[in-house]
Design goal:
- Helices cover 49% and strands 20% of the residues.
- It is α/β, with parallel strands linked by helices.
- The chain has a 5-stranded parallel sheet with strand order 3-2-1-4-5, sandwiched between helices.
- Helix 4 (96-107) crosses helix 6.
- Belongs to the universal stress protein A family.
């Protein structure tokens, strides 16, 4: 029987509960496989243009970059609290869909992409499309979708 081990796991973070849940599950998979979690925050310039902001407005990009770094540090602390420290942070720029499905997996030799079902509200999903849906269809590696926990 073939047993897949995942050494390089990519998970996106946007500050949502879904993204944090996906991150925690990625850490658990990495621990079982003695792998590395690459936690990425992608700053999507197209979204800012769509909302009427200039993509060249450096103060917006600088603020988003600082926010991304803080999110990544929060993830690293969560992983440390879970007893794992093989976490690499990535701040990327461009299309979140392309970054999660192709660009980052190819660049970092990713075996598995884990994404939360949705970190966007309905209006944002309509404007930008679902990163998770795109990643499922277009990823260059395996994808695991983490659904929100349901209280029973």
């Amino acid at each position: 029987m073939f047993a897949q081990t995942y050494q390089n796991i990519l998970v996106g973070t946007d500050g949502s509960e879904q993204a944090m849940e996906a991150f925690k599950k990625a850490v658990a998979v990495a621990k079982r496989n003695d792998g590395t979690v690459f936690v990425a925050n992608v700053i999507d310039h197209q979204l800012y243009s769509f909302m009427g902001y200039s993509p060249l407005n450096e103060s917006i990009i600088d603020q988003q970059t600082e926010d991304a770094k803080k999110l990544i540090e929060e993830c690293k602390q969560v992983a440390k609290d879970m007893g794992y420290d093989r976490i690499e942070g990535i701040v990327a720029y461009g299309s979140a869909k392309e970054a999660m499905a192709r660009t980052l997996p190819e660049k970092y030799d990713i075996d598995l992409v884990m994404v939360g079902q949705s970190g966007l509200n309905a209006v944002e999903r309509f404007m930008t499309g679902s990163v998770a849906s795109y990643t499922i269809k277009e990823a260059v590696c395996d994808v695991l979708i983490v659904h929100p926990s349901v209280e029973k």
